[in-house]
Amino acid sequence: MSNLVEESLEKLRALGLRVTDQRRAILSALVRSEAPKSAEETHAALPVDTCDPVTAYRCLEQFEKAGVVERGVRENGTKVYCLSHGHEHHHHLTCRKCGIAEKIDLCMGPELEKAAEGFGYTEVSHVMEVFGLCPSCA
Ligand SMILES: [Zn+2]
Ligand SMILES: [Zn+2]
């Protein structure tokens, strides 16, 4: 489990970003939960006095740029973050009632990229989130 944190920190180091206690705490908070967390929830999960919410939010944005976390979005538009799991790009199936989330490997990325290329776009990215009711909430 902490392996993921170390892998992520290694990635940050390789990009020339300093590994601070704050950054380590934020990554640990994300690795502890399988479901993606909003910046607010991530901050709430940090040890007291780690940093203010704005700093936590900025760190998450940096992590996203560094490819260490993936950004998603809830049905209400709230941005959520999760660790890249040391693996490939992935998506989530989230229960809209209890918030539990499953990782799904299905992705239309290559197709979307092709479509965007047709419009002359480069550096294409996408966000895809799937919502429903899990078996225990249905
Ligand atoms: Zn549920
Ligand atoms: Zn995708």
Give a quick rundown of the structure:
With 138 residues, this protein is of the alpha+beta class.
SS element count, helices: 5
Helix and strand element order: HHEHHEEEEHE
Q: Tell me what the CATH architecture is.
A: Orthogonal Bundle
Regions with little confidence, pLDDT below 50 for 5+ residues: none
CATH topology: Arc Repressor Mutant, subunit A
Q: Give the CATH level 1 class.
A: Mainly Alpha
- What is the alpha-carbon Rg in Å? 16 Å
* Main sheet specs: 3 strands, antiparallel
Task: Determine the N-to-C terminus distance.
Answer: 31 Å
Look at the structure and give the mean pLDDT.
89
Q: Report the count of strand segments.
A: 6
- Hetero groups: zinc ion
Instruction: Give the strand line-up of the largest sheet.
Output: 1-3-2
Number of domains: 1
State the secondary-structure class. alpha+beta
Overall shape = globular
CATH homologous superfamily classification: Winged helix-like DNA-binding domain superfamily/Winged helix DNA-binding domain
Outline the secondary-structure elements:
Blueprint: H1 2-14, H2 21-32, E1 37-38, H3 39-44, H4 53-66, E2 69-73, E3 79-83, E4 91-95, E5 101-104, H5 109-118, E6 129-132
Helix pairs in contact: 1-2
Explain what the structure shows.
This protein has helices at 2-14, 21-32, 39-44, 53-66, 109-118, and strands at residues 37-38, 69-73, 79-83, 91-95, 101-104, 129-132. It has 138 residues and is of the alpha+beta class. The protein has one domain (2-132): Arc Repressor Mutant, subunit A, CATH 1.10.10.10. The strands form 2 sheets. A 3-stranded antiparallel beta sheet has the order 1-3-2. Strands 5-4-6 form a 3-stranded mixed beta sheet, with no helix packed on it. Helix 1 (2-14) packs across helix 2 (21-32). The longest helix is centred in the middle third of the chain and has 14 residues, at 53-66. The chain is globular, with a radius of gyration of 16 Å. The model has no long low-confidence stretch (mean pLDDT 89). Bound molecules: zinc ion (ZN) (2 copies).
